[in-house]
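Below: protein 1.
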Amino acid sequence: MKFREINRNYWSDYDYWKGKKNGYIVEIETPYRMNHVDMGKYSYKITSPDGTVKTSIKDKLHFSGLKETCEFVENWIDSR
């Protein structure tokens, strides 16, 4: 699964990556401002083909790196 980096969202102080696999649309985000409370934490949002949304905030999961987040998301999609 490949992710492409989306431009910074200056309104929410987050950097975004977006990818797609098997009809699932995945967004990964992390804050870019050094003084942000969640600095260094990565979170995800997965939208399934039927429109159901799964987020790391709802699952209470945060990751320390982009690669770790990508692996989790890919494994989750593959297990479906």
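Below: protein 2.
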Amino acid sequence: MDRKERVKNVYNEIQSGRGNPKAFARLYQLLMNEIDLETEFNPDRRTNNYLHNLLQTRDKEADIYLKVSSRRPKKGAPTEYGYFIQAFTGDTTWSLR
């Protein structure tokens, strides 16, 4: 599978988890796998914008979601989950241009 096809599959996986915070663990693992694959492809964040964006999503939106949801275990963090989905979707759509 080539890179573009892989990113399309990632995009489709993200869409399947949209609106379902219970899918976070699966999507977070997908994010980490993408980071690993992109690091193997080109580890330079200055020239691999997709990798740079994925790392920002991990370090910002995913981290915020994890912190907020752990502080509110019953209520959860649906807003932060939405931000995570939005950022991860944006990473993939930007890469597909």
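The helical segments are 3-16, 24-41, 49-71, 78-96.
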